[in-house]
Write a structure and sequence with these properties.
The chain is an alpha/beta fold. The chain has a five-stranded parallel beta sheet with strand order 3-2-4-1-5, sandwiched between helices. Helix 5 links the parallel strand 6 and strand 7. Helix 2 packs across helix 3. The longest helix has 15 residues.
Length: about 260
């Protein structure tokens, strides 16, 4: 029987949370899956695209849940592909943006298993877009940085200090626990008045937004009880969003008061 098994691994980006932001190619890949290994997705509704008969294995990292190491996940991908054939590895956002997707693909390929990648819509771009924030805008921002707030050794990325020196829009993922350090680095570059938006659970019905400046954003976070998972957007483009205009007017009035 095992001779008829044709192993295959498809890495699929699930998008940032809104289930409609899963790509059509992602839907098609899920529909053909024999096994789905999935992370703690922002929206489990995405799983309905997989066949009822498919084996579904949760391998994400949630507080209180069993945590698989990356090595164990790599091994599960290979074992399931060799045993059942078509494996879909479903990861939030885009699997190649701080998702360790390349490691999983490389491991599967080392066993001679054919691999495919279906890019996902990254939260780094989609979450600001849902708030009307265009990361680049003619005459305002010529580029953007996407940085992880927390590196593998649990420190703040050195790139944040470099980004603070630039005129680019800065998007920081997984940075809420390092917010005070981020603020300090931007203040050091005399960027205290630079606009900031923090968006929690972006593109989902649970979305919460806080807007301010580098100097005020920690107060905004405390007042609005913002926490992870959230995206930090720093730059003049934040002020350009028509959708956030009300937040800004309220923020300016409260500062005058």
């Amino acid at each position: 029987m095992h001779n008829t098994i044709q192993p295959k691994v498809t890495l699929v980006g699930a998008g940032p949370g809104d289930p409609d932001l899963l790509t059509l190619k992602g839907v098609k890949a899920l529909a053909e899956a024999n096994v789905v290994l999935y992370d703690a997705l922002a929206n489990e509704e995405i799983m309905k695209h997989a066949p009822k008969t498919a084996i579904k294995i949760f391998v994400g990292k949630r507080i209180g849940a069993h945590e698989y190491s990356q090595d164990q996940i790599n091994q599960l991908i290979v074992d399931n592909a060799l045993t059942y054939g078509n494996v879909v590895r479903l990861k939030g956002g885009d699997p190649f943006i701080f998702g360790r997707g390349s490691e999983e693909i490389e491991y599967a390929e080392s066993f001679g298993i054919p691999t495919f990648v279906v890019p996902g819509i990254s939260s780094a771009i989609a979450v600001p877009a849902y708030q009307g924030i265009s990361l680049t805008k003619r005459g305002v921002s010529e580029s953007f940085w996407v940085i992880t707030g927390t590196t593998s050794d649990r420190n703040l990325s050195n790139d944040v200090a470099l980004a603070a020196q630039s005129s680019a829009t800065v998007v920081i993922l997984m940075g809420m626990s390092k917010l005070s350090q981020i603020v300090s680095l931007f203040q050091k570059e005399s960027k205290g008045e630079t606009p900031v938006a923090i968006i929690q659970n972006g593109t989902t019905p649970q979305e919460k937004v806080g807007v301010g400046t580098i100097n005020s954003i920690q107060e905004v976070v405390a007042k609005n009880k913002l926490s992870s998972p959230a995206i930090i957007v720093i730059g003049e483009v934040v002020k350009e969003s028509r959708k956030l205009k009300g937040f800004y007017e309220e923020f300016i009035l409260s500062n005058i008061a």
